[in-house]
Amino acid sequence: MRQKPEVKSQFVIYEGAGHGFAVRADPGNEKVSKGTQTERLITRYPQLASIATGDLLRDHVKRKTDVGEQANAFMKSGKLVPDPLILNLILTELTDRKWLQSSKSNERIMKDLEKQGDPSETAVQPSDDPDTSFILDGFPRTATQADALARLLPMNLVFHLVTPIEIVLKRMASRWTHLASGRVYNVGFNDPKVAGKDDVTGEDLVQREDDSEATWRKRLTTFDETSVPLLDYYRKKHPEMVVEVAGNSSNEISPRIYSEIERRFC
């Protein structure tokens, strides 16, 4: 993709954990995550943009938009933000960037989506501009979300990043967070420049109480319960849509992603 692709390229970067136990190996100094891969992709391919739902949520909450206020109410009560609100965030971002075009208001489009009828009823058209190439980071997480998203804008490539469970657990046990921004560091994987301090603000990092091995094993089990139907959804739509990329480090995974993108779009 050193040259601009001739087709619009919407990707989903999807992170998973491999089943079973791997031989312990040094995963290197890079963390293995979709966030890392997204950063590398937009550096390598400047025409790509990234849409991260976590960043969108924080931005809308900070700006106190209508969607942000609704989402914040759920988060403050300890509840998950409902799918329609997340989808509305993405719809707003895509229409603001002129990547989706419609004569209808976003509110009307969301109501049409809730009907779950003919997708054409939403009357949304993707931009024909070849620069409309982006990565979705953090969405969709379920088959239901993927189906709703497809009614707005079908994806054409899904990367499923697979890392052995033991490496995931090791990374989580060494995770430190800057609460105000959501930035995450991992000792031995993605160290802060100054131990215990956020790289940007210099403020203290904290280690969350729920970052224990038992908690994360339970989370990974729950993750599998939603990830399998999600990946099956995309595989049924097109057998070659999902590309599984396995590795113990970002340095192993990145070249394989580059190769697949350049094979398909360059």
Automatic annotation (TrEMBL):
Residue ranges annotated for the Adenylate kinase active site lid domain, each copy included: 175-210
EC number: 2.7.4.3
GO molecular function: AMP kinase activity; ATP binding
CDD domains, sorted: ADK
Keywords from the UniProt entry: Kinase, Nucleotide-binding, Transferase
Domain of life, per lineage: Eukaryota
Assigned protein family: Belongs to the adenylate kinase family.
Protein name: adenylate kinase
Species the sequence originates in: Corymbia citriodora subsp. variegata
